[in-house]
Structures are given as structure tokens and as C-alpha cells.
Design brief:
This protein is α/β, with parallel strands linked by helices and about 210 residues long. The strands form 2 sheets. It has a 5-stranded parallel beta sheet with strand order 2-3-1-4-8, with helices on both faces. Strands 6-5-7 form a 3-stranded antiparallel beta sheet. Helix 1 crosses helix 8. Bound molecules: adenosine monophosphate.
Length: about 210
């Protein structure tokens, strides 16, 4: 397994959930630029303070900042990575090739889903701050309200940017930036489409078949 996987898809399309399964079952390293940025905010670093407002509003952080953070946190010599949340636009896609992936074998998976269904999914999403498990109050509610089924901690939280206004901004940003990214990977013959409208088990089966 030496293919680098690039996950493309709208916010709420299930990239993070599938990435977690790929890590635990197939042993990939996971790098999520959203997680790296949230970590900077939690640490209260200068970078975190700079990006906090931008992220809460659902806008994109500037390319140079995200690329630097990504590059500092991955080392392809340590195995295959899943890139989750990067690239978000065509310039980032080209930078990922030039700076990080270079001539390594890679594949982009596009989590294809009707964007109109996503706003509901996102406002109902809850994430465990203990172990990262992702829930949905409508389709995958925890057994006890606010408590993670997986690690047992009462740390299920709503992300600051999973409110209605930020969700609309994030979906608009996605719609206006993703087209050229998809064309870019399609042009290289490196794009695979995944039907992300199915349940997470079915989606995972399709992902596994595609990457093997
Ligand atoms: P995510 O966890 O991938 O949904 O990302 C949450 C937020 O982090 C986004 O709405 C952006 O504000 C920021 N972000 C994450 N990845 C990127 C990226 N590749 N480029 C710019 N901003 C990003």
C-alpha cells in the first residue's frame, strides 16, 4: 500500500468518517487540515488566533498558511497518507503535487452527494472531543445524550462552524471552488467517484474496493 489518497467532497459528505475507517482498518496515516487548524486554535497559538474568525464564519484560510501547516505535519517516507480537507481549490491541488506528493503514486476520491442534503447533516453533527468519533443526531445518535458510545466520555460537542449561517457559507465556498479541482484530477486519470449518499458501511465497502 503506497498510494497517497486525496479525499475530495463537500463538508458533511462523510470524508472524515471514511478517513477514520481507512486509518483503523487499512493503516493509513490521516492528515486533516481542519483538525490541524482547530488544534492551533485550541493551543491558542498565534496562527490559531489568526484563523479562528475565518473558520467560525466558514470561509477558507489562506493557501500559504494551510500548505505550511500541512507540509510540517506529514512525511511521506513514513507511509501512505490520507489527505482530508486539502486541496480545497485548484492552487492547493497544484501545490500538493509540487510540494508534498511530488512523484508518489496518488488517487483522488470524490465523495459525490446531493449538496442540498448536506446542510441538515451538518447542523446535526456532533463530534467527540475525546476520541474524534462522529455522530449525527438524526441518523447516528449516541445511546446516551452527549456521551460518546465509543470512549464513554461526555464530550460530544457541536463544531463552532456547524451552525446554519457558517454551513451555508461553507457549502457556497465548496460549490465555487471544487469544479477545477475535480477536472484537474480527472485530467490526470487519478479521479475515482464514490457514491456518498449511501450509509457509511456501504460507502466504506465501495471505498475499500476502489483503493485496493
Ligand atoms: P474541515 O474540518 O475540513 O471542514 O475544515 C474546517 C475549516 O477549516 C474550513 O471551513 C476552513 O475554514 C478551514 N480549512 C480546512 N482545510 C482548509 C484548506 N485546505 N484551505 C483553507 N481552509 C481550510
Amino acid at each position: 500500500m503506497s498510494t497517497q489518497l486525496i479525499l475530495l467532497g463537500a463538508p458533511g459528505s462523510g470524508k472524515g468518517t471514511q478517513a477514520a475507517r481507512l486509518v483503523s482498518e487499512l493503516g493509513y496515516n490521516h492528515i486533516s487540515t481542519g483538525d490541524l487548524l482547530r488544534n492551533e486554535i485550541a493551543k491558542g497559538s498565534e496562527l490559531g488566533q489568526k484563523v479562528q474568525g475565518i473558520m467560525t464564519r466558514g470561509e477558507l484560510v489562506d493557501d500559504a498558511t494551510v500548505l505550511e501547516l500541512l507540509n510540517a505535519n506529514c512525511d511521506l517516507s513514513s507511509g501512505s497518507y490520507i489527505f482530508d480537507g486539502f486541496p480545497r481549490n485548484i492552487d492547493q491541488a497544484k501545490s500538493l503535487d509540487d510540494v508534498v506528493v511530488k512523484d508518489a503514486d496518488h488517487m483522488a476520491l470524490y465523495f459525490d452527494i446531493d449538496l442540498d442534503a448536506l446542510a441538515q447533516r451538518l447542523v446535526n453533527r456532533r463530534t467527540c472531543e475525546g476520541c474524534g468519533e462522529i455522530y449525527n443526531l438524526l441518523s447516528k445518535a449516541p445511546k446516551t445524550e452527549g456521551v460518546c458510545d465509543k470512549c464513554g466520555e461526555a464530550k460530544l460537542k457541536q463544531r463552532k462552524d456547524d451552525n446554519e449561517e457558517s454551513v451555508m457559507t461553507r457549502l457556497d465556498v465548496f460549490k465555487s471552488t471544487i469544479g477545477p479541482v475535480i477536472e484537474y484530477y480527472e485530467g490526470k486519470g487519478a479521479l475515482k467517484r464514490i457514491d456518498a449518499s449511501a450509509g457509511s458501511e456501504e460507502v466504506f465497502e465501495e471505498v475499500k474496493k476502489t483503493v485496493k
